[in-house]
Amino acid sequence: MMPPSLSADLSAVLAQILTNVQELQADYKTLSEKVRIYSVCIIPDSVVDINKKKSTVGEKWGNRIVLTTYPMQSGIDPIPMQWGAADPRVRGPVVVSRSLSTVRKRNAVGAHSGSYGIYHALAVAIDELNLNHKPDFTNTEPPVDIGPFPQWGDPDKIVAMDPFGHLAPWLFKDHIDDGVEIRPTIAITKAHMRLWEIEDEVKKGKLRVDGKVVLNDHGDLSVTKVAVEPVWYLPGVAKRFGIDEGTLRRALFEDTGGSYPELITRPDIKVFLPPIGGLTAYIFGDPANTADPNCRLALRVHDECNGSDVFGSDICTCRPYLLFGISEAVKEAQNGGSGVVIYFRKEGRALGEVTKYLVYNARKRMGDSAAEYFTRTENIAGVKDMRFQALMPDILHFLGIKKIDRMLSMSNMKYDAIVNQGIPIYERVPIPEELIPEDSRVEIDAKIHAGYFTSGKVLTLEELSSVKGRQWEDVDH
Ligand SMILES: [Zn+2]
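That is the input. Now the predicted structure with zinc ion docked in place:
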């Protein structure tokens, strides 16, 4: 038996040793974490193969989760950005990545690739994608020159895309060489396309083969395509809608389940890459012509309708009007002008296909009538349209378009948005009657009654009630 006093002394000594050991373990953990971050930042992939085993959550992003950051926080050092500056070096790159080498330098909230950003996250989660993968942009440059145009240097004219987005890897190479992750938000390419309606027009002699735009009697078309991911300059977006920036930030934060806390905590960061679909511009003829005021321009702005555009649903006029737009754009290009078709991923008036199909069912079950067309959508979605065209004209400014000779759209919302941006529209061209599928009369007559442009008849409310689509009994088989 030890004397009680010695036992007490020993206990105290043992307790002290235990404390020291615990502190040492804590120091070791902190130190090893620092070494890990340091090595990930400076050791090239060729030396460290981090794919050789599944990486842990801590190895990917560090053990400490940074929920949000604040301006002036220690270590936070965003790359300066001056939206609307004509000189890209003054404007600065869009930096949004939270990779270890870039997280402190971010000057934007959100993630690249619009809605596909979530697939990127999934690829990282299952170790299909190395977080330190460095994109190789060799030979990805645009095959044609677009711009720069004075519109690119106007913070009021372009607010929903990055006008330097197609040149980012080359304009901001210095930053990339410093380890900052910068990705393009626009890509431009050239292609051929074949559509049976165009082939049919060539066969019927309505469209001629010129070897440049229409390449052969199959109606193969030569086209320049511009894919654009959304990049929102928040003060500019708020201004377009006539609201204050704080309201916009709060709505984006709250209505996405609090997904982007930095919309609230980082008022110094003005750019947001939203998780939404982008757009594609199809340019027929020489792309340089779009910005030339001496060249005529035909334009169709089309919002996605997958059911009609791709799968031939006859409940609306979407594909027929789209193809009419392409055909007219091609003719304008063949005559020495330019034809542009812009395709926005705003399915079902930006309400999505689920809401759209619910509306279809309600319409057909309740006796599909043009007089009730918008009411069905409003009953379900609370609004009749969420496309809000105010941001749409950005792509026109990007392409340097200053006027539109032929607008292949009847939408008063698109017309107003473009004209409000200072781009005059000289002629509006409705869809020809013979291209309107019978079951889509309900849609087109309701839209014309609500203000869509027509050179034909605007029906009264009473007449609208007599415009009926295919009834549920006809659909339900
Ligand atoms: Zn449609």
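The pocket of zinc ion is lined by residues 305, 308, 316, 318 (CB under 6 Å).
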